[in-house]
Amino acid sequence: MMAEGIFIYLAAAIVILSVLVITRSNPVHSMITMLVLFFHIAALYVTLNAEFLAAIQVIVYAGAILVLFLFVVLLLNLKEEMVARRYIGPWPLGVLAALGLLVVIVLSLKSFIPGPSGVFTTEVVRAETNTKVLGQILFTEYLYPFEVVSMILLVAIIGAIVLAKKRLRN
Amino acid sequence: MKILTEMPDVTALMPEIVMTCLALVLLMLDLFIRRKEITALLAIVIAAVVGFFLTGSSGTAFSGMFISDGYSSFFKLIFLVSLVLSVLISIRYIKIESVNFGEYYSLMLFSTLGMMLMASAGDIIVLYLGLELMALSLYVLAGFLRHDTKSNEASLKYFLLGAFASAFLLYGTSMIYGLTGTTNLKAIAHYLAANGVAHNPAVMLSVILFVVAFGFKIAAAPFHMWAPDVYEGAPTSVTAFMSVGPKAAGFAVFGRVFLTAFGGLQVDWAGILIPLAILTMAVGNILAISQTNIKRMLAYSSIAHAGYALIGLIAGGGNGVASMMNYLFIYAFMNIGAFGVVIMLRTEGFKGEEITDYEGLAKSHPLAAALMLVFMFSLTGIPPTAGFVGKFYLFMAAVAEGYTWLALVAVIFSAISAYFYLRIVMYMYMKEPKAEVALSTSAPHGIALAVATCAVLLIGVLPSGIIELARAAVAGF
Amino acid sequence: MVPLHWYLLLSSAVFVVGVAGFLTRRNIIIMFMSIELMLNAVNISLVSFSRYLSDMRGQVLVFFVIAVAAAEAAIGLAIIIALFRNKATAHVDEANEMKG
Fold first, then answer.
1. How high is the pLDDT of residue A169?
2. Which of B108, B172, B222, B371 has minimal Cβ neighbours within 10 Å of its Cβ?
């Protein structure tokens, strides 16, 4: 009963907060709402026995990515932004498309059958600790994608410098 | 506890490893190279070295996450060809646009590396990471003209829609992971077949999500809306690059995922792809007619060509896939060739992007006009050019699989496409020059155009070599 | 234990809210945040699959998604800054140099 109660609180908060994120006129308000949302998602991960990811969610998403967003928002003219139109002209079409997608997803989820069970049951993970198990898989089975991610981060660094910093010689 | 005690066997990955190392070396060397032409030359050398390693690579690595077979090697050949040709036509152009930075070539190499990883992906997560590596480099390349608002916009639109599409890819991945407990393509196919869940609506949902995500990447209608703006706004050399390599990479993963993981559902996804292909051909060919900017027109043309290539995938089987690969190979030469001519018209202070700029080109620059004529004929599919060969085999494959009506529809749309391709030829040969148009030429540019023209004409006359290569490549799929 | 379907419904709801935000908002930064919402929705479903299938791979995938999201954020915000320098707008419908 307890678990259901916590889930219902977290789920309701997550949905309401995400609707708030996309409807605020002031981007700074959106961002702060998003921060609260990320904390709730992190809490949801804890209920799913994913402690390491909960920490990553707070450190990387809330700590790094959102701060990056906040820097860019500070470039905007917020006064102007507050009175500007929030939505594009044909916004009802967008909402309609999104609702259509929701119906399609929910209908197909009805007959969803989960796949086969693996070996990492809650007990096994608890004995070894979540971080250790995750690390073992990441650096053995997923070594190759891990290396690819390093290239992606390198490209991100080069790209950001090229686009935002490098001086043009004329 | 499982510890990695020895190096995993990476011989199959040699082309990718060589590419990564050399691209990183080039990135460092560029700090000391003043003349960026040398960087460009080194980039071509790297492509050649990788091409050399490509011949010896086959097998799987990292427990099936990486697959090197004929299929992937053929696609990698397309990527390397498009890389070399794009670098050759960039050298002069990025100087004129005053963005002559060495990072340009490094990013092209990284993007090509991403495509190679995509073609070889045996696991959806690797596919996704390769796709992101390719796409992130391209977003930056599209916005490389930082002082130009159009380039900024192109990069922004490409980025927003690309990121949107990859979110769909991830949602589809998570669905399929929940259903099968794996992201390995072969294991997915095995599980779906063995447990009889292939026709579960949730599987169909993830198929649709994959179609949306890959549809964005190959610019198939109705997911094409980014393409015209991005192609117009991006630097022309980058447009040439991204109209070929990334599109081919999109088809590579399309084929890999749909024929391997969803191979048992071919009837279902073919039912989704057929309307998509027809719509793509219709949108591309009909909207191209009213364009006044040549880059925009070629963008719609590239949408239409994605529609043709989809027919090969729908036909499926060895023949269909081989004809699709063959078509993409030919498309690399003819499309980069056409963009090569477009780039020549760009000189200091003159854009040369309007179709009216081509009026009377045959009188002032007969050679350039003749080259454009060859590429336009090839894009239309007129013999004896390679474009005809490509379309011929595509449509034959469709007919052989019982899609005669689809081939007929495609032929009708090809006939419509003649209108806008040949309009340029008509402008060049039938009209009087409006104003003096200068050309910016250089030796590398000449080499690129010569190679593209020779390939288009040679494949047009002697198609058997490339057809056999594509068929052999599919054999081990 | 909470049924798996509840988590899937939550994930689809957040995903659709993200899609709606992307399709309706004018502000580029909010559009980008909507994409982040969609990625978070995917992460929720991956983590819950990981828990209910007793398989750690779902969590590893989330790890990769977060890493790529960080890279995407860096590039995306650099692009927005580059546009902002030339045009001083953060509205997607004012980025309209090209028409046709």
1. 52
2. B222
State how far residue A169 is from chain C, nearest Cα, in angstroms: 16
- Please determine, for residue C46, whether its predicted confidence score (pLDDT) is greater than 80: yes
B351 touches chain C (CB under 8 A): no
Domain range summary for chain C, segments of one domain joined by +:
4-89
DSSP B66: E
Looking at residue A167, its pLDDT comes to 63
Residues 294-323 of B with CB under 8 A from C: 296
Tell me the pLDDT band of C99, cut-offs 50, 70 and 90: low
Which residues from chain C sit within 8 angstroms of residue B152, using beta carbons? 79, 82-83, 86-87, 95
Q: What is the pLDDT of residue B4?
A: 57
Chain A environment of C43 (Cβ under 8 Å): 41, 53, 57
Angle at the Cα of B254 from the Cα atoms of B249 and B256, rounded to 5 degrees:
95
Question: What is the reported pLDDT for B143?
Answer: 93
Q: Which CATH class is domain C4-89?
A: mainly alpha
Contact B80, B329 (CB under 8 A): no
Residue of B nearest to A141 (CA): B62
Torsions phi, psi of B75, nearest 5? -65, -40
* Paired tokens of A151: 């290239």
* Cβ-defined contact of A113 to B179 (cutoff 8 Å): yes
Q: How far is B323 from chain C (nearest CA, A)?
A: 33
- Chains with 3 or more CB pairs closer than 8 angstroms to A? B, C
Domains of chain A: 2-84+120-164 (1.20.120.1200)
Is residue B349's pLDDT more than 90?
no
pLDDT at B116 exceeding the cut of 50:
yes
Domain that holds residue B327: 11-475
Strands (E), B62-215: 66-68
Select from A105, A145, A153 the Cβ nearest to the Cβ of C71.
A153
Is there a domain that residue B3 lies in?
Answer: no
pLDDT in tens, B272-289: 999 999 999 999 999 999
| Token code pair at residue A130 | 């979540």
> At residue B237, what are phi and psi to the nearest 5 degrees?
-65, -35
CB-based contact A68:C73 (threshold 8 Å): yes
Residue in chain B lying closest to C28 (CA): B160
- Residue found by looking up tokens 């024929």 in the block: B259
- B7 close to B55: Cβ distance less than 8 angstroms: no
Interface mutation target, options C50, C68, C72, C84, chain A, most CBs of A under 10 Å: C50
In a domain, B6, yes or no: no
A105 Cβ neighbours under 8 A, 6+ residues apart: B205, C12, C15, C16
Asked if the Cβ–Cβ distance from B178 to C53 is below 8 Å, we say yes
Task: List chain A residues with CB under 8 Å of B14.
Answer: none
Report the number of distinct structural domains present in chain B.
1
| B5 falls within a domain | no
Query: If you average pLDDT over residues C44-65, what whole number do you get?
Result: 93
Q: What is the pLDDT of residues B401-425, one digit of tens each?
A: 999 999 999 999 999 999 999 999 9
Kind and range of the H or E run holding B59: strand B59-61
Q: To 5 degrees, how large is the angle CA B373–CA B378–CA B379?
A: 100
Q: Helices (H), strands (E): how many in chain B?
A: 19, 2
